[in-house]
Amino acid sequence: MNSVDSSKEDGARYFLRCAGCGKTCAGKAYELYCVDCGKNALLVSQYQRAADSSLPSDSFERYAPYLPFENTLGITGPTMACVHAEGLGESLGLERLWVAISGYSRRWNSRFRSGTFKECEALGVLNRVSEQTDKLLMIASAGNAGRAFLELGASSDIPVIVAMPASAAPLLSAQARNDRSPLLLLLEDAYYPDVIKFVEGALENFSTDLVREGGCFNVARRDAMAVPFLRAVDAIGKLPDWYVQAVGSGTGAVAAMESIKRIASHRGEPAATRLLLVQNAPFTPIVDAWQLRDRQLPRFEPDYVRDRVSSIRAQVLSNASPPYAVKGGVFDILAESNGVACAVDNDEIEAAQRLAERELEFVPCDASSAALAGLKKSIARGDVSKDDLILLHLTGGGFEELAAVEGAHPYSNRVLANHSDTETFYGAISAYIGRVRNK
Ligand SMILES: [Zn+2]
């Protein structure tokens, strides 16, 4: 690792600091882990200057000063919406409810081509991989992230391998253009935890050609996912009292908390925003551990996970091994923010979806609806006060509108097999690597 002093001397825009030991590095060599702390701590971007841009506040590009890549792929980011939701607020008894809408809505001018804020993650990770490695990216997805990587990869001609449960196979507006277009692996009879395990094996098997995203450990993923939050703070004019989001891995919430601290530090204010994180019962590992104030997540048997995950409505919230105990991870952000973690069931999610549709003319995805249901529950419990300034992040939705306007088709460059059929998938990966390398 290079020392921070050399980074500062050559005028670098940012460097990375380990949340565990404080060691720094330049962050230009696709570092995912601290050389000393490994997977026990997150690296965190340190930006030398506050964002200063004349670009419109709803444009992704305005927030480039807070991103650890240069967008050499030239991907246009989404137009992002954040609104003072008076009608929805009134129905919840809140006067100061703001809603960030990271989906697809012409009404609110939210234009995420993939319908979720995972598009920010894809934009960030594809660029950082391209700028800092010569390897091919492979990711595991429960649905939304995969959809975003495929959409951006196909429309911008960027190779990437995406694995996801066959049941989550997305409909896309972009299509494969050539044999370098993203490769989609659909695992039958698989839940997200099965896909994560499969991708780990593939990364090991093709270690000279493939590179991992690194999940929460990838600073480009976190910082890019924080952009809708930055846009929301611009719209509100200040940091909120509460930030409300549904969590699977919790990476988006970690990213928001890092932004809260960055903004507070640049403005010389305390980072007083509290986090309200929501999961879908009966699979709520983060909620369960946090309620016990336990830094370690419970260990789950695979059958237990499959059983619980199979009955939740918001499948994207099904991460069985979120970055919880890691230094700088979910436990720490809940502790630092005096946060609350809340579980909601499928019926509460459905009711919240209907409420949002009525009040916002926008149909949030199941995960976003879980966030709204969690807010409603936390008001009833007295965790959230009615005069608090609240930012609710609806991290995806508007899929029907998106499909009607932009089109929705099954993605053609796909391989479908049982999740245990490693031979078929490895054959497809090997052939794809050959095609990409030979161009
Ligand atoms: Zn360290």
Account of the protein in words:
The protein has 439 residues and is an alpha/beta fold. It has 3 domains: 4-47, no CATH class; 81-115 and 220-402, Rossmann fold; 136-208 and 408-437, Rossmann fold, CATH 3.40.50. Helices cover 38% and strands 17% of the residues. It has helices at residues 4-9, 86-92, 118-132, 144-156, 192-205, 219-225, 227-236, 251-267, 285-291, 302-309, 330-336, 346-360, 366-381, 399-406, 422-437, and strands at 14-18, 24-25, 43-47, 81-84, 97-101, 104-105, 110-111, 136-140, 161-165, 171-172, 183-188, 210-212, 242-246, 274-280, 340-344, 390-394, 409-410, 414-418. The strands form 5 sheets. The protein has a 6-stranded mixed beta sheet, sandwiched between helices. Strand 13, helix 8 (251-267) and strand 14 form a beta-alpha-beta unit. Helix 3 crosses helix 4 (144-156), helix 3 runs antiparallel to helix 6 (219-225) and helix 6 crosses helix 8. The longest helix is centred in the middle third of the chain and has 17 residues, at 251-267. It is globular, with a radius of gyration of 20 Å. The two termini are 33 Å apart. 53% of the residues are buried. Residues 1-9 have low confidence and may be disordered. Bound molecules: zinc ion.
Question: If you average the pLDDT, what whole number results?
Answer: 94
Describe the strand arrangement of the main beta sheet, using strand numbers.
4-5-16-13-14-15
Distance between the termini: 33 Å
Which structural class matches the secondary elements? alpha/beta
CATH domain topology of the largest domain: Rossmann fold
The first-level CATH class name of the largest domain: Alpha Beta
Strand elements, count: 18
What fraction of the residues are assigned to beta strands by DSSP? 15-25%
Rg, nearest Å: 20 Å
Tell me about the largest β-sheet. Answer: 6 strands, mixed
Tally of contiguous helical segments: 15
CATH architecture of the largest domain: 3-Layer(aba) Sandwich
Bound ligands: zinc ion
The global form is globular
Identify low-pLDDT runs.
Answer: 1-9
